[in-house]
Amino acid sequence: MGNETYAPASGKHLAPPAQPTASPAQPTPTAPAQPAKKPSLGYRIQRALSHSVVNVILLLVGAMWLLPTVGLFFQSVRSPQDNAQTGWWNIFAKPAQFTWENYQSILGSQSMVQSLINTVLIVVPSTLLVVLLGAMAGYALAWIEFPGRTAVLVMIVALMAVPLQVAFIPLAQLFGAIGIFGTRLAVILFHTAFGLPFAIFLMRNYFRAISEETFEAARLDGASEWRIFFQIALPLGMPALASLTIFQFLWSWNDMLVALIFAGPNDKPITVALAEQLRLFSANIDLLAAGAFISMVIPLVVFFAGQKYFVSALLQGSTK
């Protein structure tokens, strides 16, 4: 009977009650947009002053950190007599004190030049080995499944807390047994062994932050793990690789304790050579300052060359 209803008392069919029709939606009135309130002049002055105070404090802290380096440089370009009589700041009042004789003496010394060469021959191989092996192991621990992977990672993290001093006697005996004690190779192996735990930990965490789909797509295309590592992982991990290179290079370059123990008399780096000069000629500050400043130049060049990647790696965690 459709939607009609039947009333038994009258026997008639009744039409269904009319449904209420929805009234058209009425537009809600919107408040007129208020113009943005400009900060008051006092607030802007207070903000500018607060920024200025912070900048001044940072400049003062930076100047305090640079002051010893600046003093070292000006001592290195003054004669021994001038350094013995007055402070290095007097060079501003008497520019005639400026001289390159100290650097000529250092670079004319065969022993100092050989120590610089030894430093390069020690630092470059140890840095390359740590970066390459650390990147390989970090990728394996991040994306390759194998039994005992977690235990290996825990052991590597534990090795980061082992101090250098506990390994001096055992490694000296081991290097002596295999005939490399007192050579550059012994220093390189020591730097490599103690640089690897941090390198593996750093590279593993960085590779782990890369999207898994990137590696899975390469595997589906038939790429091997070696190809994925060299063509995908390494280019994407360039900021971490640069940071690791800077850290390892600076640590190996500035090391004196390991080289003093394991390097031979003909293989000593610049740090050991400067220490011997200080012991023999403790009053010869001008030559020592020139040698120390020369030893600072190459690490500074390496740092500024990789500064872009270094900053990118430091900010990586805050941008993910």
From TrEMBL:
Coiled-coil annotated spans: none
Highest rank taxon of the organism: Bacteria
SUPFAM superfamilies: MetI-like
Location of the ABC transmembrane type-1 domain: 116-306
Alphabetically ordered keywords of this record: Cell membrane, Membrane, Transmembrane, Transmembrane helix, Transport
Keyword Isomerase annotated: no
Name the record gives this protein: Alpha-glucoside transport system permease protein
